[in-house]
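Supplementary Methods, section 5.1.

A reviewer requested that the exact input to the structure prediction be made available. We therefore reproduce it here, unchanged from the version used in the analyses.
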Amino acid sequence: MHPEDYQKYDATGLAELIRRREVSQSEVFDAAVAAIETLNPSLHAVVRTRFDKAKHECDQVLESAVFAGVPTLSKDLLMALAGEPLAFGSASLSAWCPKEDSLLIRRVREAGLVVMGQTATPELGLMGITEPKAFPHPHNPCRKGYSPGGSSGGAAAAVASGMVPIALAGDGGGSIRIPASYCGLFGFKPSRGRVPLAPAHGEVWQGAVIEHAITRSVRDSAALLEQINGMAPSGPYPVPRETGYVAALSSSAKPLRIAVSMGSFLSHGLGAQISADIKIAVEKSAKALTELGHEVEWCDPPVDGEALADSYLTLYLGHLAADLQWVSQQTGVPVHRLAIEPSTRAIGRLGAKLSARDYELAKRYWHTASEQMSRFHQRYDALVLPVAADTAPAIGELYPSAARERLMSLLAVPGVPSLALKAGMLKRLAVDALSRTPFTQLANLTGQPAMSVPFHVAANGLPVGVQVVGRLGEDKQLLQLAAAMEQHDDWQCQVRQTSSQAQPSL
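The structure derived from this sequence is encoded token-by-token as follows.
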């Protein structure tokens, strides 16, 4: 199978070709290897490959499996492969290997996907860009020199370039939706607890983190979620395994009542400047949804964006401090000697000075926001708003400058972290971290399903995704809406599949 033919299909389409014996699993595998070896030297999406092990695993996959041996990539964060490196994007963990597979990886393999390697992520998944000092920085395949976003930036670059049709990804504050938007892909964040993080974790970031994938078709996202959803025996949330995600795509959707917002309720106070192209994308999506028969109204939810940002950043700081202690335990290196980036060290020091009271108060706001959104969804089935305030930034544009890193190093002075928090450092961090992407954290804090749909290409040639947030637990309804939007002329994804027999149009 020639790489160009391989790149024409989504994962479901490749699996169908394998089952019909039009191509073999080995041919698809070899095409993926060729694509990765050809494209990755310039894009840096993949931080390490495991072709020999993957080939052995591919040979064991039954053609009857849902994905029948289709190649994928996992993220270099949380997604453990037993006995293989998992660096979390950090030099501090470059030699660390987990002892057992994550439950997600086990379920992915049972579904017939073959993990070819691991994709780039920022250190400890902390940024909305993927520029770790320990690894080369991935480029956006849509325009060289620009970021594919983060923290699942490597996954998005790999899918957008055609290395693999589907790549595993995680989302703790927009880390699936932001890269999907920047790279013109479909990115779906399931409801809280839908996908387990066991056995290493019950929950990450108080349940804000959820894992799934970045894809080039809605049906691939639905098919994967059907295979990986459902709580672990040790899971903190009673979310039973469900079916029907794929079936929902072809069933008739009832007209929905959909709110549309430019997101000013979230960006207010963070200095976000929404570009003209973002506004165009949101307006196009509102028009398209009306044409699809839905009732569309412009309306903002009653959520306090500044309080939400403060809450998110407080938990972010506290968890980073705990994560660095975990890294120290795993490596045997004291926290103050870990090989971590200056910004990571500085934020960790701030987190270590947070009081239990401040942490708990921040967490309580999550419930406040959840209650507000629950009441909002009594009137509206879904909310449309931006993913980001602008298209993808240039590489290096958003990473802390050398001067800012030197300033952060002052946090090593005893007493300075506490003084910095009292002086409003958290507000400054919120502006720095969230001014470009203040719209995605809401769904992580409330646990709602949310997605980025590719609905516009900006004047500079970079894609623009539009975010759609659904009612908590209504993942099927949101995927069903995505499938309808996928058929609209404004859908800009690279691969569009409308039936199991159709070859995708590029």
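Residues 302 and 372 are 6 Å apart (CA to CA). These observations are discussed further in the main text.
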